[in-house]
Design a protein that fits this description.
By secondary structure, the protein is an alpha+beta fold. Helix content is about 25%, strand content about 20%. Bound molecules: zinc ion (2 copies).
């Protein structure tokens, strides 16, 4: 593996180019010790706003929950209380009420666990909660889209390690979803095929970037990865949202998802930071060819090295990656599928 990749790769879902310039000296970190100690996290923290039975800032008290726990965000970015009588700005500017709902889902009562340390039945139960949330929120008249996402780690701004994600049910469709839905519809109209199925087939034909696969789901570092350890997790069958998966498909997806986050943690034997997002079709209208999937965008390139968004990304709007997706997939494939904390 003397990876020397220097090319532009087309990202068919986002419809943009990714520059891959992986010709720098990038030594893999496999087998190397990360000389850092992580302080032990307690199972319960009295002033954590997510731990069972605790008081939250808004004055509400958490249930004494023993598996998952869902509540409305006390400081929502979109919410039923957002002002509706807005003063219109000067043209061409526009505004509108920030309607919708923001919720928090705790994965576990245990403050010291992460998604990677749950067992597969607990992950499956979490997916069932997300399914239920999607159905509930999609049924509300003001909701156009349901975004489920987890920000994990201090480098993505989360100082509280209590395992949780957020749900934004919004009166608009997030930009990336809008682009993906349009790309999927156009591909179907042009070719008669589902775009994401073509992506899955291309990944299977190459094979080097696949991390985990079973009968119903698959995880891979996409050919067009923008982040070093970017991973997509998707059901084999095309569904518009997680809510459309059968129980068998959900269980299979849970097992693939869990193995991905375990491999992330095993990479450097540390809790691996990421932004995880469920990409589901908009809740209204027809979205032919939309294939629900989960995307992981980990910000780290090495244990202490962030991917900085700079000139190409912020200035120009396209990503520059200086690592090869094939090499990064090989690193993730090489680590054990059992969590390092569970090995003795
Ligand atoms: Zn907690
Ligand atoms: Zn996507």
């Amino acid at each position: 593996m003397n990876g020397h990749t220097w090319e532009e790769r087309w990202h068919p879902l986002r419809e943009e180019w990714v520059i891959v310039a992986a010709h720098r000296q990038n030594r893999p970190w496999i087998g190397e010790q990360v000389g850092r100690r992580y302080e032990t996290v307690p199972a319960y923290v009295p002033d954590c706003y997510l731990c069972p039975g605790n008081l939250r800032v808004g004055g509400a008290r958490n249930a004494e929950y023993d598996s998952t726990f869902v509540f409305d965000n006390d400081h929502p970015s979109v919410g039923p209380d957002a002002p509706v009588d807005l003063e219109p700005p000067v043209a061409p500017y526009r505004n509108r009420p920030a309607r919708g709902l923001a919720r928090v889902v705790c994965y576990s009562p245990r403050h010291d666990l992460t998604l990677a340390e749950l067992d597969v039945s607990e992950v499956d139960e979490l997916l069932a909660v997300w399914q239920q949330q999607y159905r509930d929120l999609a049924a509300r008249p003001e909701v156009e889209h349901v975004l489920v996402f987890e920000n994990k780690g201090a480098v993505v701004g989360v100082s509280n390690p209590h395992p949780h994600c957020q749900i934004y049910a919004t009166n608009f469709v997030f930009r990336t979803i809008e682009v993906e839905a349009a790309a999927a519809a156009r591909h179907l109209a042009d070719t008669g095929r589902v775009l994401f199925q073509d992506i899955l087939a291309a990944e299977r034909r190459d094979g080097r970037r696949i991390l985990v696969e079973n009968d119903v789901a698959m995880a891979f570092v996409p050919y067009f990865a923008r982040y070093a350890y970017e991973v997509f997790v998707a059901p084999a069958a095309t569904h518009a949202s997680l809510a459309a998966l059968s129980n068998d498909e959900r269980r299979g997806l849970a097992s693939v998802l869990l193995e991905v986050v375990i491999r992330f943690d095993n990479l450097w034997q540390m809790p691996f930071p990421y932004v995880m997002a469920l990409h589901q079709a908009p809740t209204r209208g027809e979205h032919p060819g939309f294939h629900f999937h989960i995307e992981f965008h980990p910000p780290l390139r090495k244990p202490d090295l962030l991917k900085y968004l700079a000139g190409p990304e912020i200035g120009g709007g396209n990503f520059l990656s200086d690592t090869s997706p094939e090499e990064k997939a090989a690193e993730l494939r090489a680590v054990p599928g059992v969590h390092y904390k569970h090995r003795s």
